[in-house]
Design goal:
Number of helices: 14
Order of helices and strands: EHEEHHEHEHHEHEEHEHEHEHEEHHH
Strand content: 15-25%
Structural class: alpha/beta
Shape: globular
Radius of gyration: 21 Å
CATH architecture of the largest domain: 3-Layer(aba) Sandwich
CATH superfamily of the largest domain: Glycogen Phosphorylase B
CATH class of the largest domain: Alpha Beta
Number of domains: 2
Distance between the termini: 14 Å
Length: 348
């Protein structure tokens, strides 16, 4: 039997979209991605519309819907119920799958403008996916009628068959791997690092990512005289993620909000423990004292204390990393997550 034709409404520059659609093509599906800006994806049919202000989704809605329907799809899949939901709704097509990512459920509905629209697209969806049980709970709290059509499908990662060793350096190091935006609190991490360096002068932090806080963070690093301890490397390629993680002893995720927390799973796949805030889907991934530590959001002193604890207990870092590796392999293996998404498609 021929595989289905899938239209994906989602940002083609997102590593998660790239991974999903590449996996679907590898499994024989015909896929068209329709994106606002974004990247081309090797081996995938991608149509991009230019971003031109806050009303871009509305401006391109008719053309995006036409591009989707011209593909004669069997399924349309909206990734992110907000902006791309506008395009999905415009097609008036079924079956419609909607994947909620986090802020589209936990932030956008606070807007008087977006709230009725988010409810409308969720109501029209024939199936909904959420990246964590926490996000599923947020979605059903927002709209109880969704409960029976939501599946939890995490962003999986490719887990190496062999465990990875810790860096040979005796000087502890950590990595931050998120966008440079307020919601991910990189400023809190930099302030905490100042306290860590007072005890461990050779501690090293690498900040990977780009965003609106870049200049502010560079100024903060200079103000706190942390130029020798903190390196900002900008946005890195998806193919470089593992290599960067493997150069460090642990990961820090000081986020104020997380729908899932795939960076923590990336760290676990590399046998690295994680220090993260107790928000969103993080408690489903990080078990305090087992594969990392959890802290309260926006708490500089507590974050610094836990980082110092991690560095001071070097013998525990490797053990926690191995525990994380087992979690990644058991719960977040990439192929298993793709299997779950394929099961949703094949249910229609």
């Amino acid at each position: 039997m021929a595989k289905k034709k899938i239209v994906i409404f989602g940002h083609s520059g997102s590593i998660h979209i790239k991974r999903w659609v590449t996996a679907l093509v590898e499994r024989g599906y015909a896929v068209r991605v329709i994106s606002l800006d974004g990247d081309l994806i090797a081996g995938v049919d991608v149509i991009r519309f230019p971003r031109s202000g806050k009303l871009s989704y509305f401006k391109h809605a008719s053309d995006a819907a036409k591009a989707a329907l011209d593909f004669q799809p069997d399924i349309i899949h909206v990734h992110y119920a907000g902006g791309y939901g506008i395009w999905g709704k415009k097609t008036n097509f079924h079956p419609l799958v909607v994947s909620v990512w986090g802020s589209d459920i936990e932030t956008l509905p606070k807007s008087f403008f977006y709230r009725p629209f988010i409810k409308s697209i969720l109501n029209e969806a024939d199936a909904i996916t959420a990246t964590s049980h926490s996000l599923k709970k947020s979605t059903t709290s927002f709209m109880a009628e969704c409960e029976n059509k939501i599946s939890v499908i995490p962003f999986g990662v490719k887990v190496p068959s062999a465990v990875s060793e810790m860096p040979s350096s005796d000087n502890a190091s950590a990595i931050y791997l998120k966008h440079l935006e307020k919601i991910y609190a990189p400023d809190i991490l930099i302030q905490a690092t100042k306290l860590v360096v007072e005890k461990f002068q050779n501690f090293r932090l690498t900040i990977c990512g780009d965003g609106s806080l870049k200049d502010e963070l560079l100024a903060l690093i200079q103000e706190l005289q942390l130029e020798k301890n903190i390196q900002m490397v900008g946005r890195i390629k998806s193919s470089e993620i593992n290599d960067y993680i493997l150069k460090h002893h642990f990961m820090v995720m000081p986020s104020l909000q997380e729908g899932f927390g795939v960076a923590a799973v990336e760290a676990f796949a590399c046998c690295r423990p994680v220090i993260a805030t107790n928000v969103g889907g993080i408690p489903e991934i990080v078990t305090n004292g087992q594969n990392g530590y959890m802290v309260d959001p926006n708490n500089v002193q507590q974050l610094a204390n836990v980082m110092i604890k991690m560095i001071s207990e070097k013998e525990c870092i490797a053990k926690m990393g191995l525990n994380g590796y087992e979690v990644a392999k058991e719960k977040y293996d990439w192929e298993k997550c793709v299997d779950k998404m394929v099961a949703v498609y094949e249910s229609f």
